């Protein structure tokens, strides 16, 4: 990947970062990792919220973190194949990054953080569309923070966001039906842990004896 096109933008952003107050710099450093934890908490909340719903809703909620993990693995494989050096070492005239530059061999393109953020944001929206107003800004801020602290080029995070979103969406859409069928099986299982994971379902109709069915 030719990084020269965004080297100037990288320098502009990192130069601006060093003019900001120290508390703001620390906040940006914290957000690059804390955002991942917040996405993790949202995965759990969305799954719990979906448990009383239909099997497809539960399937999408369960697949959201799994699809994000698949996107991360694909990103890591791509990084290893392309071996783009980090801008904190490669960009001439750039100041020191706000956090330690990752070691040689921890490649730059695409950004794993941005890939995870893009994948998490989109899959959470697929599970709960109302979350778009929260997860999309979270993903964009996390991606930008990786440039702000000096460890990624702008194109690393831009491609990472799109890459993560596309891969994770494909995984969710491809697996939703079989996982939904598995959820139905788990709901009728004698295993308490299986029923806990799949949820009780929702009352849909009554059978011929007047007993409500759960879906």
Please give the number of β-strands. 2
- What's the overall average pLDDT, rounded? 86
Q: From the helix content, strand content and strand pairing, which structural class follows?
A: mainly alpha
Unreliable spans are 205-215
Strand percent estimate: under 5%
End-to-end separation: 49 Å
Q: What is the rounded Rg?
A: 21 Å
Side-by-side strand order of the widest sheet: 1-2
The biggest sheet amounts to:
2 strands, antiparallel
Number of helices: 8
Q: Fraction of residues in helices?
A: 55-70%
Tell me what you see in this structure.
- The structure is a single chain.
- With 215 residues, the chain is mainly alpha-helical.
- Helix 2 (22-50) packs parallel to helix 5 (112-127).
- A two-stranded antiparallel ribbon has the order 1-2.
- The protein has eight helices and two strands; from the N terminus they run H-H-H-H-H-H-H-H-E-E.
- Mean pLDDT is 86; it is low at 205-215.
Q: Which features would summarize this protein structure in a list?
A:
single chain; 215 residues; mainly alpha; two-stranded antiparallel sheet; 8 helices; 2 strands; disordered C terminus
């Amino acid at each position: 990947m030719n990084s020269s096109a965004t080297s100037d933008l990288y320098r502009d952003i990192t130069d601006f970062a060093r003019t900001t107050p120290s508390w703001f710099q620390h906040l940006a450093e914290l957000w690059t990792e804390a955002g991942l934890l917040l996405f993790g908490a949202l995965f759990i909340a969305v799954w719990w919220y979906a448990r009383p719903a239909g099997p497809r809703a539960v399937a999408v909620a369960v697949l959201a973190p799994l699809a994000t993990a698949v996107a991360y693995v694909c990103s890591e494989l791509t990084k290893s194949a392309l071996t783009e050096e980090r801008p904190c070492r490669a960009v001439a005239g750039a100041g020191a990054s706000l956090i330690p530059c990752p070691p040689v061999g921890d490649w730059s393109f695409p950004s794993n953080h941005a890939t995870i953020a893009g994948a998490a944001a989109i899959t959470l929206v697929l599970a709960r569309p109302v979350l778009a107003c929260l997860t999309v800004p979270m993903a964009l801020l996390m991606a930008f923070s990786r440039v702000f602290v000096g460890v990624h080029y702008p194109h690393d995070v831009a491609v990472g966001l799109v890459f993560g979103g596309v891969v994770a969406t494909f995984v969710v859409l491809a697996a939703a039906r079989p996982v939904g069928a598995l959820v139905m099986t788990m709901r009728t299982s004698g295993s308490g842990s299986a029923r806990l994971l799949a949820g009780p379902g929702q009352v849909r109709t009554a059978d011929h004896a007047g007993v409500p069915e759960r879906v």
